[in-house]
Structures are given as C-alpha cells and as structure tokens.
C-alpha cells in the first residue's frame, strides 16, 4: 500500500491524548479481503484503556463545550479540508482494508467529508428559544447543551462515513467521542483521527480504540460519564447495547439492519428503475443497510424489467478494488460470502430461477452479482438481509398487496418505489413504514437529510438539522425574581 502521506497509516491507537500500543502488547492483524494478505496490525485494547479514554474525554469535553460555536466550526472546517486533501490516501486505506472499488472508496471519503462540512456549518445554529413566561417576574429560557461524552461503535461497510456522521455533529455540539471502529477496518478510522488531531480537535476529545469489542462496549455502556451511545451495526448488537445502557439511562442512537423493499410499478420509467436498482442493490457489493433486498415488480412489466436489469448486471465487473473498471469488490469475510450463497441456494431450492450469476468458488470472497427471478415470500432472501450482490425479483399485482408485503418485516430503514403517478407516489411514501423512502430514486443518503429507521432498524437520525439535535439536550431555565 503506497500512501502520499505515509503518516496516515497508523498502527497505534489514539487513546486519551496519546498514540499508544496495547498495555499488554497484543495486536490483531488487518487483512485485505481481496488478497487475504495482512496489511497492518493494530493494538488489542480493552476495558482499562476504554476507561482511561472516557476519563480524559470527560475533562476535555468540559473545556470544548465552553468554546464558541464559531471556534468549533472552524476546527471542523479544517478537518473537512484535511480529509478532502488526503482523500486519495484515505481511499487507498479504505479499499485496502474493506475491498470496495477505489472509485467507490473515493466517493465514500467525499461523502464522509460532507458530514464534517455540514456540521461545521450547523455548529453555529444550535439555537435555543425564549418562551413567553407564565409569571410577570420570570423569564423562560430554553437552551441547547451538549449531551457530554459519547461512545460510538461503527461497522466495516462504510469505514469513514459512519464515523464522521457521528463525530461531525458530536464535536459541533460540544461533545467528546470515544470511538470503537470495526475490527475489519480500523486503518481508515485511525487515519481520520490523525487528521482530526492535525485540524486542532483537542487531544483527548476524540479517542479511537481498536480491540476487544465486548470489553470496550461494556466499559462505554456501564460508564455513568458516557451519556450517549451511537451505534451502527447489526440489530443483535444494537439490542445488546440498548439493554446494557439501561442502568445508566443513556441516550441512544441505533442504526441497525434493514430489509429494503424496492417497488417497480407498471407505470414506472423502467430505465430509471433499473438505474435505481443498480445503485440501491449493487453499491458496495450489496453491503449497505439501505440496500434493496426485495425487488417487487408489477406483473405486466416483470419480463421487460428483468431483461433490462440482466443486461445491466452483466456489465458489472468483479475483482480487486484497485483494478481498473472493477465495480464489485470482494465481500468482507467468509461468513458474509457464505450467507449470500446460502440465500441463493435456498431461493433456487424454493423455485427461484437464476437469470444471471454463477456459483461462488468455495472459500472465495468474490461473489458474482446475481439476478434471481420468481422469488417468493417463503425464501430466506425475503425475510433476512442478504448483504450481498443478489437482486431477487418478486411479482406483485396490486398496490395494497405490495404495501402489505413490503411492511411485513421487523425492519423499517429504507424503502423505494418507482411510479410516474403522483397519487401512487404519495400513497407509497405515506404507507411504507420506513424511516426513509426513495420515490424514483435509488440513492437517498446525503448529509443534508435525516438518515434513520423505525421499528427494529433503530432510533435517532444522522445528518441534517436532526443529526445535530441528537447530540444536544434541551435545558430549561426559569429566571425568577426579576
Ligand atoms: P457485523 O455483523 O456487520 O460485523 P456487528 O454489529 O457485529 O455487525 O458489528 C458492528 C460493530 O459492533 C463493530 O464495531 C463490532 O466490533 C461491534 N461489536 C460487536 N459486538 C459487540 C459487543 N458485544 N459490544 C460492543 N460492540 C460490539
């Protein structure tokens, strides 16, 4: 791995105010999923280091909170500029440890930077209000104050963006962050911390700890100092963290799994709908929580749509993320790849037809993109998040039926519908029980809109004005005796 700025390859953790090794000297390897080669190693930290980071964060956060919003904004702006300037190196680290094609990694770095930029701007807009008082000699002030120290735990599918969309609003609001990145992708996180330090984020305000997830997670959740947990990852771990946070009554932001329906109506612009599926299904090799999982196509356009989709999917190129023209990288690990193969096998056993795709070579993390026809609601692919490059096409006849099937899930993150009929568009937008709905759009993520789910997909919103609010408490002061 060749970086223009080699100092961005960090193999130590940023704990409290220092770059440090594990107390016991233990390390864990970082593996390139494309080659299987070890590219670096990072410390295995645990409870003690997490407690130390929390302790420093508490002290530094109190100072950071007192700074002017403009100061915090300027530091964040500088961080944004540094991330942008170093986007080639960051994308190189990202592709090396995560596998996504380099162009996509560059796109993720720009997306990650956009959260820092946005919240640098929002930092100055944490307005309170004055409410007309119920007493002549009193005034009611409502202000917004930072929640305090935040524990953040992030996944491997967006190693940069999932961090900045937590840290951007947290630092803007005046909070400190103790971050545990995914074990698969620590290098991007550590490089972001290096740039944060260069930008002037005070030492100790931001800690990044790699290592024992359960030990660090329990130190964060049990601590009375940590006032909020912001987690993106699996529903199972989200529920665990929620339960662990009960004793200290923390604020929670949970971005958990999805099982997105993607509805293509008979009046849809089919070319546009295919474009939508390509981005909503195949981005990051299908490893996003807003990926289309169940593609419902109205009977009368089913054949035409599937033909168009197969044409496009056959143009995708699987391979190493650094190779030119590659559009689908490896999946993150063997468990992920075998789950996807299992979904395909289960679907075929229950009557699905493979219109495009070929079986995975045993043990390979490279999974060919698939288009499956005649999917039905009894298949695993209908009920579980596949998290891989498999487009399963279900049939539907009428809108009520498809809305019922689309909502028949514990998940409620993202949903998509394609129609040119305005009334239908509103019906889908209003009836789909999801935190986010894309109408005639397959890419809904942006820093300017509130990202988040309902039901088992989680709590809280990231991005937009709401994303800052999630890191603020409302404080009311009654000024009496005036
Ligand atoms: P995935 O299956 O996609 O890796 P996870 O929910 O297991 O999703 O992982 C998301 C993040 O949660 C990672 O940073 C992981 O290390 C962390 N994690 C996993 N188990 C725990 C735990 N018991 N406590 C705290 N964090 C955890």
Average pLDDT confidence is: 97
Strand order of the largest sheet: 14-15-16-13-12-17-18
Helicity level: 25-40%
Count of individual domains: 2
What is CATH's topology name of the largest domain? Aldehyde Dehydrogenase, Chain A, domain 1
Characterization of the model:
Pfam families: Aldedh. It comes from Photobacterium aquae. The active site is at 255. One of its GO terms (cellular component) is cytosol. Belongs to the aldehyde dehydrogenase family. The protein has 482 residues and is an alpha/beta fold. It has two domains: 6-256 and 457-477, Aldehyde Dehydrogenase, Chain A, domain 1; 260-439, Aldehyde Dehydrogenase, Chain A, domain 2. The protein has helices at 47-66, 69-85, 87-98, 102-122, 161-173, 186-199, 213-222, 235-244, 270-282, 299-313, 334-349, 380-383, 399-407, 422-431, 464-469, and strands at 13-15, 18-20, 27-31, 38-43, 129-131, 139-146, 149-153, 176-180, 206-208, 226-232, 251-255, 260-264, 292-298, 353-356, 370-375, 390-396, 414-418, 436-439, 458-459, 472-479. The strands form five sheets. It has a seven-stranded mixed β-sheet with strand order 14-15-16-13-12-17-18, sandwiched between helices. β1 (13-15) and β2 form a beta hairpin. α3 packs antiparallel against α6 (186-199) and α4 (102-122) packs parallel to α5. It is globular. The model has no long low-confidence stretch (mean pLDDT 97). Bound molecules: adenosine-5'-diphosphate (ADP). Adenosine-5'-diphosphate binds next to α7 and α8.
